[in-house]
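Appendix B. Raw example, untouched.
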Amino acid sequence: MRLFVALDIPETVRHQLHGLMESLRKVCPGARWVRPEGIHVTLKFIGHVDGAKCGAIRRALERVHSERRVEMRFYGLGFFPNGTRPRVAWCGVEGTPNLAELAAEIDQAVARLGFEREKRAYTPHLTLARIDAEKVRRGEIEKLVDAAVEFAGASFGSASENEFHLYESVTKSSGAEYKKLQSFAFVKRPA
């Protein structure tokens, strides 16, 4: 099984991003656009896991907590690693300080089980598309980067979350599909 931990986003935000992605798909049809129902805020990519370890992962995640809900604002459009050589198109996520703390606590909890710790600083974002420079025409990529300027300051909504989810990523010919395995309330006393 291929597992990750994430926060869901509200349907209103998902709807806004769907509209954005549909307009950008016309500009860059060669990119692999994420299905709107699959958009989420990743907290930890665990990777391939033997099914026997799933119970230990669930128990570790049950102990993760925060004193308050995570507040997030979704805005803008950008690229990893940059607009010159974009590989991922993303929507930005600005969160309360406990968003990064939550990601770090989850990372630490699964590291105790032998999973690799994150090497990079946590950068919350919503992946909208993946761009393979060998498969997407350069002209399309340039048009996409140019179109992104219009959305650099756009707001797509906000969220207030008090639970995260363990997902399984199932690779299919039509793309990855995500199956929610379990939800975890990280605020033990709702704030």
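End of appendix B.
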